[in-house]
């Protein structure tokens, strides 16, 4: 940190010394370069470049120059003498241009042009440079040339000329043509806009009435050297110290003859350039403007000679015809300042000063060019860049280069030999390891078996003993693993994390540490007895770890305290007791897996499985041993959601490394069918119990935390609903309208439980407040697994009986409510733009608006529903109340929601099942959706109008609940949230169509090169955009055989693929699976919601995402009109 | 000891002497004595043994990483005596004042001391870049070697100590240096010139604005004729055919001057070719100087009379370096490629020569 601070400081301190660059500076380079001690390093690097310049023997000499120039540009931010970039560029240009061969070769090389452009930027009069370039035909086939030239003219306000330049470029067919056209269009746009805004004023206004200016010296008249009354015009001598342009112009009045101007000027130019292109000298060097340079002098005594000639301003130069001849300018004309005639008299006092910073000597003093003299040495090499080299140095450089190459060759040879040797050894080692592993595993199994059988009684008695055993086993197993595969080297740590992971689980089940030993040991012993025949050592270790960690666990957070209360209230002891059977069964399954695979990775996944299952099993009720066969997560949900919440939260405390494991677990969850149906009987049983628990718990619990809030808790009556209904009616018409606009199916709009969702919102808000929104999301994700496909089938009439209503799976509405929440949260950052829409086609504009409207529609729907169906809420609210009660007691605002939900709780005691469903519908999808929506909606100011209507009630609502400030808390860009959400997905990102995980590092992407990603080959054409975290390239797929862009589950709406296979590669560093996920998810949902088909078009589609260890590449279609944002901004 | 006559006579009657018959006349247009077994690659530096030993030994360092030592006999015959190999091309050689050791500066960034008696070499200096110059400094109070390197430092070494006595930073890479106690002059890249005084301890004396317009290539100190032979100034050779005579303390600025040299006089195609001045040496007795250039000629000059004493015929190759023996009887010059046109123009087919010339009379200054 210190280093970082220091560098930041340095940067702060020397900000004003840094010359800005068009394309910016690299912060990393800056921080290094600004360090004063870096000078030596810089010099060394520069010397290396200089050496390379002279020793380069390849066929691309410009490459060295280019790299050198770029380096100097970045490394000498102060400009000036240190880097001497201007001189360097001049040298480069003249050396390249001077050589006929290289000149021909690089005539239209973009790098060459880039150097020219840099030079133009450095010049006082860039227009001259461009004109010369055109005249000499250098780089005239490159688009950038015209763009920059035109920009220069545009800056000067010469729009006509700028336009002509563009047209010239297009006429000459500069490459790439589309870029030029685009730029031209943008230019036109700018012009029209500024015309409309009145920024372009007729240029004549510049030369209006002569005005008095300050500090003008005036001509004196008459006797007393009086100054005339009229102090403008001819009486003005000129401004002090400089030439008055206006003045001269006015006096001049034009020459008495007319200059002949050829109208076909461009033809003329080309003719000139043809004649001149060879042998003509370039206008580099200060020699160009020599006669125009004013030497510094005493300004008071300076007399400005008044010449009456037509002064042409620099900007108008382009309007004038260049003469068909070139004025010869000597390259070697010495600079006037070159030889200071006097030396600072050096004395012995100065001699002690060993600092030569102020001793500036010209590298050489150019003699006037003498065509009859030829230096007979390699002058071009001696005086190549910014340094001079002696013959010996040149030779030495070459000598060392050769030496290096030889060394390299030798090293490579040796390396190859070493590699071969190592490979052989490795193979042998692997073989041996295999053998060892098998042996050890067998030994371990037998050992563990005996251990368990023998020592379980002892373990029951003392946890310590079990700890020892587990330790022992742990070590042995890990060491074994370590031997097996290098990839699992980190396994021990993983194991540790797993253990940590499990601690909360067990803890949740066993609230008091004192109880733990008893509970766990007893339960485990049972389980072990059952599984004895098939038990796997590792699973056993795991179980022991459970015990161990649980017993050692210390309740650390307030939440845990609450949780433990809940747990104890609910009588978790029996739960824990019952847990083992499941674990055992799981073990068996995994055992099979493991035995079949016998790889450490398998073991690894087993761990995670185990932890997940443990969660479930630990919590399942004692009376349902058969629930084994159900999804562990279902059982989870069957239990108290509060519990779940805490466990999940605890689980997510471990470091990010855990995420990986999550994913594994998710996979396993996916593999197991989401079993909604088998639950029914179980639920019934459970529900009764739970309701009992709930009833019992709720009262005291709330009292515990909400002593003051209790007054708010009102029995179910009209008042509580009034809260909801009150919020809604503000804008019923708007809602209705929107419903129509979105053309949502009627049944959908009649979704019945939106009230619940409202509560849900409340809940999330509360969570956010209390827990910094991570746990919330996890929570939802956990539950989402159950919600795999919310069947929007059961649409009940509005007046239906409460219980069945609650039974209906209304997840879409829940989502909507999420979105609603998200929108409210996003309202703060509404105007910011998001990049997710980068590739959208232009016609998506309207569609997109429609889309965002739809999300709002769902909102309105909810509100409508709240209005109408008060009765419906009962079950739902009950659930949510339950939910909130359990987790977020600390929250103040929740008191109100509690009040709302209170009646529901009472009512819903007979419908706990529905409750559970509701819980489950808070899922990662929703969270994701809400985050995504935030992203998506921002760039759509269009939606504002419609939104405004909606927002009103929303705001009302939030204010009612005192939750206004919560929405800001979710930051969709927070890495942690993203991580958590991604890791909790029920359909992991990795499993989604188009996701390609690639090991290794991001390949280096260069324009005009080919890269292979997976099975696809791309020809990267050019860079289209660049941001802080990503670069966007335009590319085309090369092999038509490989262009199976989208996997089989291609949507029915045929997005017409561009015929040219134009693709956009978004290269992100670090990898951003989030974007991929969001786009994918959004599309999926849009698809499943039967929206008008074309809506999909407005959403970015990522054909493929390649994910590397240090970056990711998203491939999607190229839309030539750019993004919506472009359209909006344009 | 040589007597002028001995060496001179042997020079004139060279046909009978140890000149290998294989050497074509074109390679030796001046008909001088040829040193046997010349280096295989370009000769970078040469030095004659100091007056402290009776015989004349010549050492030459070359780009083939070797330093060779010959004994030069009175009759002009040379006998190869010994050879040492360095880790890189040899950039400079210098004799210890007692004539027992030779210091060799190499591009391998080290300086080694070669004890001729035992034929052992040991490292005595280390730089961060190739070492371009090495000189032995014999002061009443101390003795050391001075090394100048492309790492932009000038270092002073007691040969028994791995650490330098003193390090002086240079404004640029050291290109050339000369030492004549109590004065040292160093020419660097980017045309810097610094004069040091060596009394009591090395100290910068003066920074001098270069009198030349182009790169410094070689420098040599000359002594005051009237005084007690104290160093009075130096001659500086440029990469572009010019030599400057510069006094440290001048009565009038007109004492300093530059003169053109090593240029062809518009011979064939009407162009005047300008060549680099590769080396300058002052005659130890007469105070006149010899320059050698890329054009393959050597020239003798009288700086006080501002006249050219002699101009040689052109050799097949450039003359890369030259040396006078301690009494000024012998002028040695090495004909080998000086890399002036880049390594691409190096012709390995061409043989390298070192020639010895009896020069005492030719370098006598004009009597005024």
TrEMBL record, chain B:
Compartment annotation: Cytoplasm; Nucleus
One annotated GO biological process: cell division
Segments annotated as WD repeats: 83-124, 124-167
PROSITE patterns associated with the record: WD_REPEATS_1 (PS00678), WD_REPEATS_2 (PS50082)
Encoding gene (name): rae1-L
Naturally occurring in which organism (per UniProt): Homarus americanus
Principal subcellular localisation of the protein: cytoplasm
The UniProt record lists the keyword Cell division: yes
Alphabetical UniProt keywords: Cell cycle, Cell division, Cytoplasm, Mitosis, Nucleus, Repeat, Transport, WD repeat
Highest taxon listed in the record's lineage: Eukaryota
Family affiliation: Belongs to the WD repeat rae1 family.
Protein name, entry field: mRNA export factor-like
GO cellular component: cytoplasm; nuclear envelope
Pfam families: WD40
Phylogenetic classification of the source organism: Eukaryota, Metazoa, Ecdysozoa, Arthropoda, Crustacea
